[in-house]
Amino acid sequence: MALHDMKAIGAKGADEASPGNAWFLLQEGIREQERKASRIIYPNAPSYMLFVAGESRGQIVIDGVLYPLQPGAAFIAVPGQRVETHYEIDGALQYRFLFDVVGSDEDVRAAGAWLAERRKCGVPGDARVPALCEQTAEGWRAADPVDKLAGQAGFLELLHVLLKKQGDQGEALERAHGYLRRHYREAMTVDDLAGAAGMSRYHFMRSFKERFGQSVMEFLAELRTNEAKQLLETGMPLRRVAEAVGYKDPLYFSSQFKKQVGLSPRRYLASRECRVAAYSWPNIGQLLTLGIIPHAAPIDQNWSDDYRRKYRFDVKVPLSHDYEFNWKALLRVRPDRIVALDEMIVPEEKAKLTAIAPTLFLRWHGDSWKAHLTQVARFMERETEGAHWLARYEEQAAEARELVPLSLRRGPLLILNVCARGMQVWGKRAGTVLYDDLGIPHAPGVERIESTEFVTAAQLQAFDADALLVTVMKDRQSQAEWNRLQRTQEWEALKAVRERNVCLGPDWNWLQEPILEYTANRQGQLLQELVMSFRAL
């Protein structure tokens, strides 16, 4: 890596943005109890916004990027960004402060760039934050214009508390993040970044992922891939695209692009020729299996950010949970085709969709994911691709059946998922790869569960399973729940536990919502992971 300005990571550098002499002017202060579990706050933020969470937990999605919400967590959105919230309960307290940046043109530009780099700010748990939020909101609501000054003063102090230096390590990580955004075309290594930040390689990698939700190399690959997509769409030759985004070898670039996107650069370009709308979450996975990245789709899944990270650049029209919003968005862009779920849409909405473009309505409850794929392939005129994919899947399933360990093959098997909300049992439809395609007998009672069902440790005994396959999510709450569960007497009394017949499965976040991910794309991923796991035994 060229180290000519790497010192900017360890200490403030010349190319780092700063607020300059700009002034931040409060335009509106909102204190509210969010009544909806999921809501689009702004399709396009009208100004700069400071968002502060109250006591509830959930997620905030800013321009397709998901962040966990903890009490006191604060985020900044810039004008034009899409902002959504998802809460685990209704009635969550939250604060929104809309503000303008005032000053010379140069200072306003500098301050805007500086704010854009500080999307997540502050440290959750700071006792000053809720008090200052209340002061700001109360001052803004005051009838007396002079009393409103207290709101402005509280807002400026709140910004100071949230944006001021939060320790050398936090500052170094923010600068490393900003450096990557500005210099991702250059050659660089994790060791270079860690050394410049004054941390060991391991500590830097772990701290970076904790702070930003993805590893250094994942972030670097995402930046390079998104620019490569733009350049490819201009018609630039592959070799020049590779060089422009930091790869010397076009073959290596192509392999990294396919790893990131799931398609080769040439197939990616071909996938953009037909603008398809995936109207519901599962429709995304159905299209991706056929090598089609949707032009319009909902990418606000709060259980997984896989699609959001990989495809938020490609999904030009983000959809939501609001029928009216979706209809207007699709009416504006006029996609070539629409894929939707029959039971999820009311007749009036179906009529509106079919008036926009040819629409396929899939029977969600009545048909299997294999039938869904076949129907989508026919609708998209990709029957050959669909048939080849299913044939490969059946070959992998046959291989996997030979590799299933004897302890699981005999059954009866129970599949459990441990997440922050508790422990859930997978029903037969959710566990179709293991129960149907691999032929593993399921535990009694599984057949009555359509999708998943939350249970307690005491209720597990009734399933009388000889084997357990457990998937545990990676977040701290899920890990804590798993550790607690293993210490309970009810868990230790289970037959599968006593006989040490408990297998740990993959920890992908989407496994906590297997029905909403009931698609060929996800079933194929799960089967491949099982094959690799069985081979390693």
TrEMBL record:
Cited InterPro entries: ABC_transptr_periplasmic_BD (IPR002491), Homeodomain-like_sf (IPR009057), HTH_AraC (IPR018060)
Keyword Transcription regulation part of the UniProt annotation: yes
SUPFAM superfamilies from the UniProt entry: Helical backbone' metal receptor, Homeodomain-like
Domain of life: Bacteria
Domain HTH araC/xylS-type: 174-271
Residues annotated as domain Fe/B12 periplasmic-binding: 275-537
Pfam families: HTH_18 (PF12833), Peripla_BP_2 (PF01497)
Any one GO molecular function term: DNA-binding transcription factor activity
UniProt keyword terms in alphabetical order: DNA-binding, Transcription, Transcription regulation
Protein name: Helix-turn-helix domain-containing protein
